[in-house]
């Protein structure tokens, strides 16, 4: 998971900035000798291979599907419906991959003194932060740089991940709040419009241009999601069970809240890439290490502060805490682990590709959840599910092909 920093073959893009020996001396790499760059068309000079991206994509979809099915089981079948506590545990679990990654790295250097190893790891992370364009030019984080909060790479990392955590929390809370007012169909269709907002925010925050293929892909993904949500000829079982007062202003309120969540999730993926993505780094492992660390910090922030909201919800009788049974704990654990893996991999996909690609990947999970419902619970997908899923697949294929070209 972490490359040897003395291996530089095929690791430096032609357009990258040059790196002098002085750039590495403060990291204890004075003995590095840079050999002439050898170009190989089969091996990319920057970033992960297509195989790595494909595997990350596969496990992202698998993880989200397992997470959603596990949550549905312990809420609907076992009767332990505590959505906000589930959200708190899931977002806090983002720290788990970081902890496992640190454990792995430490295991590779067991003979190194712990204090020395930790200092080197922190130095590597801070050096990676110093190469981020957003830190170098100060754009989009000026209100932090003008204070004493973020004058250093450490301050920038802590400040930016705190904002990312807040945006992610707004996105998650909006989803559960909207579900109390609107229908599952509306919520699914609106929330998955996050791909559109990711594309919109990418223009001013990342300086990306919206090409024709991107616009078409986003439109197809949104249209496909709408078909899955509304395409059935008759009302779904869940819609039929909706209370009759969930109409008019109630449904409109829920849809507005869902739209806020969609905007927040689209913004979340964009600012994560803006503030944690290394654009001109020599080693792909540095990008991986920083992304995992930043994701882990969001989990740490959630774990440290989110319990306050859980206590308030309990005191106000909005969501009272009930000790889960061992069976619930088992499925809760599955959902937490699957969520931690899938969310971390999704952020890596955003870092390696684009926020739009990551958002469409999450939309793609809608179809696979429908297939899982069929296999596990006998809920046969409708024709609309296949049509909508097909459109989402086409949208994803367009983005993938555009990215490879």
UniProtKB/TrEMBL annotation:
Keyword hit for Nucleotide-binding: no
Cellular-component GO terms for this entry: membrane
Keywords: Membrane, Transmembrane, Transmembrane helix
Segments traversing the membrane: 53-74, 86-105, 155-177, 189-206, 213-230, 250-271, 292-316, 328-349, 356-377, 383-400
Region Disordered, residue ranges: 1-23
Keyword Transmembrane: yes
InterPro entries: EamA_dom (IPR000620), EmrE-like (IPR037185), Solute_c_fam_35_mem_F3/F4 (IPR026505)
Start and end residues of each EamA domain: 156-229
PANTHER family in the cross-refs: SUGAR PHOSPHATE TRANSPORTER DOMAIN-CONTAINING PROTEIN
Protein name: EamA domain-containing protein
């Amino acid at each position: 998971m972490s490359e040897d920093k003395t291996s530089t073959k095929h690791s430096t893009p032609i357009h990258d900035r040059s790196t002098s020996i002085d750039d590495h001396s403060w990291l204890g790499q004075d003995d590095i000798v840079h050999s002439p760059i050898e170009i190989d068309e089969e091996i990319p000079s920057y970033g992960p291979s297509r195989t790595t991206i494909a595997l990350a994509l596969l496990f992202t979809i698998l993880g989200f599907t397992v997470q959603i099915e596990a949550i549905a089981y312990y809420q609907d079948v076992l009767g332990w419906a505590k959505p906000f506590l589930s959200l708190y545990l899931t977002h806090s679990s983002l720290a788990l991959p970081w902890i496992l990654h640190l454990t792995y790295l430490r295991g590779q250097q067991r003979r190194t003194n712990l204090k020395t190893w930790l200092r080197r790891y922190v130095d590597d992370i801070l050096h990676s932060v110093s190469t981020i364009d957003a830190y170098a030019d100060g754009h989009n984080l000026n209100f932090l740089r003008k204070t004493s909060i973020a004058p250093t790479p450490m301050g920038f990392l802590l400040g930016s991940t705190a904002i990312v955590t807040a945006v992610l929390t707004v996105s998650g809370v909006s989803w559960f709040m909207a579900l109390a007012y609107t229908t599952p169909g509306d919520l699914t269709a609106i929330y998955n419009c996050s791909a559109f907002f990711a594309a919109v925010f990418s223009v001013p925050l990342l300086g990306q241009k919206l090409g024709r293929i991107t616009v078409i892909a986003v439109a197809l993904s949104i249209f496909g999601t709408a078909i899955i949500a509304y395409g059935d000829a008759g009302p779904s079982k869940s819609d039929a069970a909706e209370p009759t007062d969930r109409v008019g202003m109630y449904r409109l309120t829920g849809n507005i809240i869902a739209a806020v969540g969609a905007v927040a999730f689209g913004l979340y993926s964009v600012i994560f890439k803006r503030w944690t993505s290394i654009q001109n780094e020599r080693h792909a492992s540095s990008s991986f290490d920083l992304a995992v660390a930043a994701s882990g910090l969001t989990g740490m922030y959630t774990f440290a502060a989110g319990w306050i909201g859980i206590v308030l919800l309990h005191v106000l009788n909005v969501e009272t805490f009930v000790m889960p049974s061992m069976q619930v704990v088992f499925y809760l654990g599955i959902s937490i682990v699957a969520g931690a893996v899938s969310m971390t991999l999704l952020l890596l996909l955003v870092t390696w590709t684009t926020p739009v690609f990551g958002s469409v990947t999450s939309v793609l999970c809608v179809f696979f959840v429908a297939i899982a419902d069929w296999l596990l619970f006998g809920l046969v997908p409708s024709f609309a599910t296949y049509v909508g899923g097909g459109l989402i697949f086409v949208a994803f294929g367009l983005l993938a092909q555009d990215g490879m070209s």
